[in-house]
# Entry
Amino acid sequence: MSVNALYDYKFEPKDKVENFNGMQLLYVYWPHHLMYCSPFAFLVGPDMTFGAMVEEVLKPAVAAHPDAAKADFLGAEWQLNGEAFTPDPNATLKDSGIDHKSMLTVTTKGLDGIAGTAS
Amino acid sequence: MPVKNKKLNLKDKYQYLTRDMAWEPTYQKKEDIFPNESFEGIKITDWSQWEDPFRLTMDAYWKYQAEKEKKLYAIFDAFAQNNGHQNISDARYVNALKLFLSGVSPLEHAAFQGYARVGRDFSGAGARVACQMQAIDELRHSQTQQHAMSHYNKHFNGLHDAAHMHDRVWFLSVPKSFFDDARSAGPFEFLTAISFSFEYVLTNLLFVPFMSGAAYNGDMATVTFGFSAQSDEARHMTLGLEVIKFILEQHEDNVPIVQRWIDKWFWRGFRMLSLVGMMMDYMLPNRVMSWAEAWEVYYEQNGGALFKDLERYGIRPPKYQDIANDAKHHISHQAWSTFYQYGHATNFHTWMPEKDELDWLSEKYPETFDKYYRPRFEYWAREHAEGRRFYNNTLPQLCQVCQIPTIFTEKDDPTVLSHRQIVHEGERYHFCSDGCCDIFKNEPEKYVQAWLPVHQIYQGNCEGGDVETVVSKYYHINIGQDNFEYIGSPDHKRWLSIKGKQTGDKESSSSQDAA
# Structure
C-alpha cells in the first residue's frame, strides 16, 4: 500500500548509505544477552575485515558482560539478515556481502546470559 | 410588537454561536474551501448528524476556564511559597516530572497545533467548534503543566530546557514522532489517532498514572493540575467517541479505513506508553499500581467493553491486541533496563530498585520478574556497589516506526527480541515488532523519512561524533548534573541535605564512577 495524499508523495530515504560519509551502519545482535537491551548499531567502514570488526568493534561493546570473556565469537554461529552465514575473518565486510544496515546475529551456544536468564 | 427577550436562553445561544456560524457557500465550491476533507476516502453524507460533545459556547468556556485557573494558580503560588518540593516522598520522584515535562507537555502543544489545523479542514460547523475548543484546552494544558512543574526547576536538575530536548533527545523522538505522524495525516486520521485511539482508548493510562503518582508522592502542584484538567479530559474523551461513531455511521465504506487507523494508532499509542509503564513501576517511590494492573483495568476491561460496543459498526478490536496484552508483563522492565543502561544520555536520573522495591516487582509480576529481569537487576546493583555502574557505550538499533530501540521480545519467547526486517526499494529497514512493520508497509513513503536519532548522530548531524558532545552540546543536558546514576547525583545530595542527612560513603564513590 502507499500513502494517501493530495499530491505525488515521494521522498528520499533519510538513511541512504551516501549520507554516512563513506561509512555504513551495521547492527549486531547477540541473542540471550539482553543485558544489552537491543542489537548494537555500529558505524563501520565497508573495507574493515570481519575479524577486525569482531576484535575492534564487537568485543569492546560487549566487554562488560560476564559471558564476554568466555565467548568465541569467530567460532560461533552467525546469521546475516536472517540467513545462515559463514564468516571469513580476513574478508572485508563489503566482500562478505554485509551491506549498509545489515544485521548480524551471533549465537554463542552454551552461553545464556546472567544466571542463565538470557540477560 | 412586543420586544423579544434580550437575553438568549442557553440553547439558542449555543445554536447561534456554533451551528449558525456556518453558511452554505454560493460563489466558491465547497471542496475548494475545504480541500482536505475528502482525500482520505472518508465519506460524510450529512454533517448535521454530528452531535456536539462540548455543549459550550466560547463566552461560557472563557468564564469557566478562567475560574478554574484562578484557583489552580493560587495553589501553585502556595506550593512555591511553602517550599512544597520538600514534602514529596523522595527526590527520585522528580525524575518522573522531568520525563513528563520533556515527553508529554510538548505533546499538549502539538495537540493544540493539530486541532487548530484540522478544525479548519472540516466543512461541518459542529466538528470545527469542537476542534477549536480542544485546541485551546491543549494549549492551556501545555502552559499549566509547565507552570505546575516550574517550581521544581529551582531546586532540581534536568528541567531547564524541555522544549529544546523534546526536538532532539533520542528517546523523546518517540513521543515527538508519534504526534508528528498524526499531525501530518489527514484530518479524519488525526481525529481517529488523537481523539479516539489516544484520548478515548488510552488516555487513562497516561493521566491516571501520572496524576495519581503525583498524589501518592506528595506533589500538590501537579495533582492540582490533574484535577483542573479533568473536566477538559472528560470532554476530549466524549469527542473521541463521538468522532468515531459519527464517521462509522456516515458510510459503510468508512469502516475498513477507520479499522486500519485504529490498528495503527492503538499500536503506536501502546508502544509510546512503554514510557509510562516504566515510570509507574520504577520511578514512583510510592507506587500507585503496577503497569500490568493499569493495563488490565484501563485497556483490557474498559477497552474490551468499548470494542464490544463498536462491534455493531463492523469494528473489531485492534490488531495485535493479544501481543499488547501479553506484553504488560514485560515492557516496563524492558524500558527501565534501556534507560538504566543509557542513563548517560538522559535528562533524568536512573537507578536500580531497592530490595523492597524488587520484592514489590516480584509480587506484581510473578510470571516474569524473577525469571527474566530480577537477576539482571541484581547483577547491575552488585556491579554498581563494586564501582562499576553499568552503562552501554554503543548506540542501540532503533525501530523505523516507533523509534524505540528494538528492545521488545516475542510473545511466545521472552528471551528472544521480536526484531523484524524488510527491504523496501533497495533499502533495509528494521522494526521492533509486526505491529510497527505493518504500519511501515501500509505507508512506506512516510516512514522512510524518519529522523532516527541514532542514525542522525552517525551521519554527523548532531554537533559531534561522540556521545558526550551530542549530549551536552546538541541535547543541552548538563553532564554530571542532569544525567547518570541517581545515587550520588547533585539531586540526591540536595535531597539528603533538605532532609538533614549526610551523603554516605556509597554515594560519594558511585558519583565518581558516574563522572
Notes: The two ends of chain A are 38 Å apart (CA to CA). The helical segments of chain A are 50-62. Chain A has a mean pLDDT of 97. Chain A touches chain B through 49 residues (CB under 8 Å).
